[in-house]
From TrEMBL:
The gene is LOC100501537. It catalyses: L-glutamine + H2O = L-glutamate + NH4(+); 5-[(5-phospho-1-deoxy-D-ribulos-1-ylimino)methylamino]-1-(5-phospho-beta-D-ribosyl)imidazole-4-carboxamide + L-glutamine = D-erythro-1-(imidazol-4-yl)glycerol 3-phosphate + 5-amino-1-(5-phospho-beta-D-ribosyl)imidazole-4-carboxamide + L-glutamate + H(+). IGPS catalyzes the conversion of PRFAR and glutamine to IGP, AICAR and glutamate. The glutaminase domain produces the ammonia necessary for the cyclase domain to produce IGP and AICAR from PRFAR. The ammonia is channeled to the active site of the cyclase domain. In the C-terminal section; belongs to the HisA/HisF family. Belongs to the HisA/HisF family. InterPro entries: Aldolase_TIM (IPR013785), Class_I_gatase-like (IPR029062), His_biosynth (IPR006062), HisF (IPR004651), IGPS_HisA/HisF (IPR050064), RibuloseP-bd_barrel (IPR011060). This is Imidazole glycerol-phosphate synthase.
Length: 356
């Protein structure tokens, strides 16, 4: 049949411009919707993403919460899960406010059977009816065997999320295990969740979420992993650090660095990397520039900077100093400390190309 290339366009996920195109198709004799004049883009626009960590609180209600270095419980005697709002309501508001994408993370997904998590699937269905930008969902995307002995492949799990309204699937722990196996053997088995889903749905539908923790070393030769010279020295004056990856919501450390993991998952079929940092999570002091620069320089796929945003300046800083394609925030948006519109306006004034 020769070489064939195809492009899939989702106008309903393209904001005002996409919706106006849809209206032209439905009402060809109408004048259409006027779209505000915009600056001519000179390069790929940077994205601002709102992230919602979703889990059940102690009363059994599905809520949006936010961690402090991955701890989502209040530092009070009650130790209750922080409740920052309802998932669909917040996602809808972020779309209205100008978020380029919305990401849902089911932060208890690694413990439970995701296809039995009917409330989370319903959240996706309802959000997709109100939010017309790409939706990403993560948490528990892996092979499962339920209580009755029925086996479900990661592809089946992902397919249910896609049918419920997700545009992208985020894989965390399972991608770490797949990368470790690949680096050890050099063989792509095609059986990992990452490989299965990217093969069926395309690389663009698969995001790998990396959760590293900074480990200071005195010398680059101290560890067999990629190190960087850090901007701020360690507690004992260390000038270098490597970033050790974790699994199971940051609970368990693995013998693989963020650099090595990023390179491996790109090779296995990831279309994007969501780069978190446990040390910066919830601190509001800015993204980890050293980490994001190291990884975004190492891969050709887009890198989303996550963890640490506390002010509009942190967004322009990450785009000016690294090759990150997008920046993600959660708590500052949930608590209305920094509106998405303020971030967009600051980036425009700073000369950063964004979607407005």
């Amino acid at each position: 049949m020769g070489n064939i290339q195809a492009v899939q366009f989702h106008p309903e996920k393209s904001g005002a411009t996409g919706l106006s195109i849809l209206k032209e198709f439905l009402r060809p004799n109408s004048l259409g919707t006027k779209v505000p004049a915009r600056r001519k883009a000179s390069k790929l626009a940077k994205r601002v993403i709102a992230c919602l960590d979703v889990r059940s609180n102690d009363k059994g209600d599905l809520v949006v919460t936010k961690g402090d270095q991955y701890d989502v419980r209040d530092h009070t005697s009650s130790k209750e899960v922080r409740n920052l709002g309802k998932p669909v309501d917040l996602a809808s508001q972020y779309y209205i406010d100008g978020a380029d994408e919305v990401s849902f993370l089911n932060i208890t997904g690694f413990r439970d059977f995701p296809l039995g998590d009917l409330p989370m699937l319903e959240v996706l269905r309802c959000a997709s009816e109100k939010v017309f930008v790409p939706l990403t969902v993560g948490g528990g995307i892996r092979d499962f065997t339920d209580a009755n002995g029925r086996y479900y492949s990661s592809l089946e799990v992902a397919s249910e999320y896609f049918r419920s309204g997700a545009d992208k699937i985020s894989i965390g722990s399972d991608a770490v295990y797949a990368a470790e196996a690949f680096l050890q053997t050099g063989v792509k088995t095609g059986k990992s969740s990452l490989e299965q889903i990217s093969r069926v749905y395309g690389n663009q539908a698969v995001v790998v979420s990396i959760d590293p923790r900074r480990v200071y070393v005195k010398s680059q030769e101290d560890v067999p992993f990629k190190t960087v010279k850090v901007s701020t020295k360690g507690p004992s004056g260390e000038e270098y650090a490597w970033y050790q990856c974790t699994v199971n919501g940051g609970r368990d450390s693995r013998a693989i660095g963020a650099y090595e993991l990023a390179k491996a998952v790109e090779e296995l079929g990831a279309g994007e990397i969501l780069l978190n940092c446990i040390d910066c999570d919830g601190q509001g002091c800015g993204f980890d520039i050293d980490l994001v620069k190291m990884v975004s320089d190492a891969v050709t796929i887009p890198v989303i900077a996550s963890s640490g945003a506390g002010a509009v300046q942190h967004f322009s800083e990450i785009f000016e100093k690294t090759n990150a394609s997008a920046a993600l925030a959660a708590g500052i948006f949930h608590r209305k400390e920094v509106p998405i519109l303020a971030v967009k306006e600051h980036l425009v004034n700073a000369g950063v190309e964004v979607r407005v």
